[in-house]
Design brief:
Layout lengths: L15 H15 L7 H8 L6 E5 L9 E6 L4 E6 L9 H16 L5 E6 L3 E2 L6 H4 L4 H19 L4 E6 L1 E4 L1 H7 L3 E4 L4 E3 L11 H11 L1 H10 L3 E2 H7 L4 E2 L5 H13 L3 H21 L1 H12 L2 H18 L1
Parallel strand pairs: 3-4, 4-6, 5-7, 6-8, 7-9, 8-11
Antiparallel strand pairs: 1-2, 2-3, 9-10
Helix pairs in contact: 3-5, 5-12, 7-8, 7-11
Bound molecules: ligand LGD76KDA.
């Protein structure tokens, strides 16, 4: 897929027209996915399915990186990541996730969302390191803006959100999971913000998120040491909420959403918004500064050298 030169602006509160124009631009520019007004038309797209409305977010031209299904009986959506080999988040993948989040948020039929992975033993390996290594600066900035967008959408979602963590979940994968309301994890995997181990720095909003999740003291140790926790350690720290055998992860997430659905939605949403709004507002107010910091940091020679060495070490390990 070619380099993206122009700026993609996904406004947090786009007008319907602006959003549609933006989606059309994305489709044209990237051959990303056949953009459809999903919420109303899922049924029409998949008339053969009764209870399961399926929206394939990618067209024949690109791989099916993200599968989104909504169970019309329960209103629970499942977003399944499938970007081999490790579900790393590049610009196109993040854009697809944002489009799906926008559609689900606006769908009257959807009340809950589960994020999970189709790749065995991997939930999400975090940011695609290749986006940060020897980057095109315009694309690099757009990449970061799109990651910010994902966090704003997911952490601020009105839906009941759960991460069904069925594999490794370092760095950006951990960010994604912690942005949900609930985390259920299979045993035997690692999760955490390991940025310092790569020689990079988790930005303030990653830091705020982990502090909001498990408190200051444990977060400052975890962030400085770049600790990847086992599922069991993560449970003890409050980074995840439950551990169940691999084959029960999805069912447990579904049951948990059903439990949350019994709470009056309006009261729950206002409470969630009040708790999370300060962190989201902080990012909104520093968004451009944060992008500039990221760009200046990543394009430093010393950081490029470190990233190059890290990529080599991953490749050697994979052999
Ligand atoms: C005022 C100034 C302040 C300054 C502020 C500055 C702000 C700067 C901000 C900068 C922050 C940037 C934030 C980054 C967050 C991130 O998410 S960084 C990414 C971190 N991710 C990782 O470290 C994960 C690395 N991967 C792994 O640990 C393992 O791959 C795995 C545990 C996920 C899976 O292991 P396994 O199943 O054994 O697979 P592998 O053989 O290791 O890998 C297979 C294959 O995938 C490639 N790969 C792995 N991870 C990534 C990745 N994240 N991106 C791209 N590619 C990845 C790996 O190289 C292998 O490829 P090949 O088969 O060799 O081609």
């Amino acid at each position: 897929m070619g380099q993206v030169q122009s700026r993609l602006t996904i406004s947090p509160t786009p007008t319907k027209l602006a959003w549609m124009m933006h989606l059309r631009m994305l489709t044209t520019m990237h051959g990303l996915c056949e953009v459809r007004q999903c919420s109303k038309r899922w049924k029409n797209l998949c008339p053969q399915t009764k209870n399961l409305q399926k929206c394939q977010m990618s067209s024949a031209g690109s791989s099916e990186m993200l599968q989104v299904t909504v169970d019309d009986k329960s209103g629970i959506a499942t977003m399944t990541m499938c970007r081999p080999p490790v579900n790393s988040l590049n610009l196109e993948f993040l854009t697809q996730i944002n489009i799906a989040l926008e559609k689900l948020e606006n769908s009257k039929d959807c009340s809950g969302l589960i994020i999970t992975s189709k790749i065995p033993k991997i939930f999400c390996a975090g940011l695609d390191i290749m986006e940060m290594y020897q980057p095109n600066v315009d694309r690099l900035q757009e990449f970061w803006r799109t990651l910010q967008e994902m966090y704003i959408r997911l952490y601020g979602s009105q839906l009941i959100t759960a991460a069904a963590i069925n594999g490794a979940s370092p760095a950006g994968g951990c960010l994604m999971a912690m942005s949900c309301d609930y985390r259920v994890m299979a045993p035997g995997y690692k999760i955490g913000l390991n940025e310092t181990q790569l020689g990079i720095v988790a930005p303030f909003w990653f830091q705020d998120l982990i502090i909001n999740t498990m408190g200051f003291r444990q977060s400052e140790m975890a962030l400085q040491l770049g600790t990847l926790f086992t599922s069991e350690e993560a449970l003890n720290l409050g980074m995840v909420d439950k551990i169940v055998p691999q084959e029960q992860v999805m069912e447990t997430a579904i049951q948990e959403i059903h439990k949350w659905k019994k709470i009056p939605g309006f009261a729950r949403q206002i409470t969630k918004s009040a708790l999370r709004k300060p962190s989201i507002d902080k990012l909104h107010s520093k968004r451009e500064e944060d992008i500039a910091n990221f760009r200046d940091f990543i394009t430093k020679d010393s950081i490029q050298k470190t990233l190059g060495m890290y990529i080599e070490s991953l490749k050697k390990k994979a052999k």
